[in-house]
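hey so i finally got around to running the thing on that chain from the lab meeting. sorry it took forever, my laptop kept dying and i had to restart like 3 times. anyway pasting the input first so we r on the same page abt which one it is
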Amino acid sequence: MYLSAYHFIPYGRCSQLIRDLTGMSPSKGTLVNFNNLMRQNLVDSGFEADLKEKLLASDVCHFDETGYYFDDERNWLHSASTEDLTYYFPHEKRGQEAMNDMGLLPLYKGVTVHDFWKSYLDYEHCKHSLCNTHHLRDLTFCEEQENNEWAVKMKTMLLELKAEVDNCKEKGATAIEPERLIILENKYDALVEEGYQKYPFPIKESKKRGSIKKTKSQNLIERFRNHKEKIIRFIRDFKVPFGNNIAEQAMRMTKVKLKISGCFRSKEGVESFALTRSYIDTHRKQGNDIMEAIGLAINGKPLFAK
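ok and heres what got predicted. didnt touch it at all, straight out
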């Protein structure tokens, strides 16, 4: 379990390594059975339900999703995470159906941090914070591919806002002074308006069907106006980060798994991986001994998250 779920070593190589070190030769089937046993123990003990309750109680929660292949079909691995907790959930779909089945977003009342994927925005009972690391990448594209001067200014603006928050935190402040906050927001509003003036949207021709085709830059300008509160929430609430790095780190590990071991071969396999990895990554974040935590889970007494 330590080698496969923590270090992503394929079952065949795990078996080879154990044989080389100990002379014992566990089959791949035996290793798969241990994986399934650990998953079942995590469910039966209530660890999974407890982990979801702790995520629902968090002030800020990060969400993301990434694709993987199972039975030649594209599926999706969803994640919810904080600095201390990680939860993975596999599903055939990417959108709201999967998010509802995951059982977190329909109930969550805190601040969700995520990228600009519409399915997240459909949950109106919680607050939203859009990942500005993604915005910096999008603005760089507009700068390099569309020669957009406004994108350069908005990148500078976002980085200035981040520096302002970082400076306040370094000084021990818990918020930006109200007067300074007004100045920063007015500067943001003026820059968005400048974008509309310099890059006006095309006028829709009468009787022509469909939406107006816009450039990447125009779509971003519109997003920065319509979703201002979600984009600059981090300057009003210091608990909210600038980007969605916590979720991206969680997803990065699954990409490592797929690169090393390839696609999943069964639905049970991906479900086992998702929950055992949730358990392991949560205890990694909390500084617990991973081998000890796995041993407890195998024996039906998993260590619960703090």
